[in-house]
Amino acid sequence: MNSKLPATSGFISQIKTGIGWLIGLIISLVAISILMPLLLKIETVNGNQVGVLETWTGGVQVEPYPARTYFLFPGFSQTMFTYPLSLQVFVMNDKAYNQEFAEGREKDSYLVQSSEGQDMHISLNVQWRIDAAKVVDIHRTVRDNIEEKMLRPVVMRVVKDEATKRTAIEAYSGQGLVKLQTDIFTALVDERGELRSRGVIVENFVIEGIRLDPKYIGEITERQVATQRRLKADEQTKAAQSEALRAEAEAQADLKRRVVEAERDKQVGILNAEKESQQSMLAAEASKRQVVLHAEAQQQKLVLEATGTRDARILEAEGIIAIGKSEAEAQRLKLSAFAVEGSDSYVKVEIAKSLASAHQNVKGYLPNDMNVYTLGNNFMDAIESIVGRQAYAGESATQQPAQ
């Protein structure tokens, strides 16, 4: 038995050691779980938020923290504040609203007075968001309840400034209401205005309605009815005038169309007449030119024929002249042949033959006193006369130069 005691005591010792180690581990885990939140802090800035970090040593950090998860160590000395960047709604009205979607007070329509002293209960709706670039300034100056501390005072002042410039009937409805709403919105979104300079961006502004005294509303209604009647009458008058103008315009258009068509027909007629006139003139000119060309051709033909005739006659005359010259020359030469000794007797004999031959058949009366001697003397005298003339002609021919 004694041999088993050391083994048992060793086993018990191991158990005690294990238990001690386990207890130490548990104590360590407990200590870590207690100290871990103090040493390490995990902060998540969501996608529609921006973060502002404060530390014990550095205070508020100058740069905002965009959406993501941050591990802060040591965590006990750092705190992350988050601000929503999504669109928010601020209301001032007498309607019940869901606090999950809008901020404001119950039964909180804004009471202002018009320029003539009428009470106007204005219900309004403002859509706004925080400027991420100025969230650090908002954290330092306002931090929480931004609607009450920043938005409400500015909205009330701007609405009052604009509403009191107008009469109640002007601001109650129609274009006056639209103009009031536009002027208020313009003032709230002004980049140099109070809200924008402090980090609040107004996206939209709507006047939900204006509540007036019922008696005054009756008066406004009567005025509006009268105004509507007058406007209706004006519109009817304008419609009648417009119809008359339309009819007049149609008549003028029809007249103008007819005038244009008539002018067009006139111009077409003029152009056709001018075209026909030009065609007639061209035809006449062509005919005249043909006549002139024909006359010129005839004249040229006559000139050519006359020239041909003249040239032919000239040639003929020249031929005759040449023949005459030839015959004259032949006669001269023949006469020259008789110009030798004894030629006169020969000539006389030949002339006598010719005369005898010419008068051989002459029959008639001869004078009583004529005898053969008388006839002979006269005959010889005639021959002498003829011969003398022939001789003279021969001499002239011999003296004339040859042509």
From TrEMBL:
- Protein name (Swiss-Prot/TrEMBL): Membrane protease subunit, stomatin/prohibitin
- The UniProt record lists the Band domain at 44-243
One of the protein's GO biological processes: proteolysis
Task: Print the organism lineage.
Answer: Bacteria, Pseudomonadati, Pseudomonadota, Gammaproteobacteria, Thiotrichales
Give UniProt keywords alphabetically: Coiled coil, Hydrolase, Membrane, Protease, Transmembrane, Transmembrane helix
The molecular function terms of the Gene Ontology recorded here are: peptidase activity
The UniProt entry's coiled-coil ranges are: 232-265
TM annotation in the entry: 21-40
Any single Gene Ontology cellular-component annotation: membrane
Which Pfam family would be a valid example here?
Band_7
InterPro entries, alphabetically? Band_7 (IPR001107), Prohibitin (IPR000163)
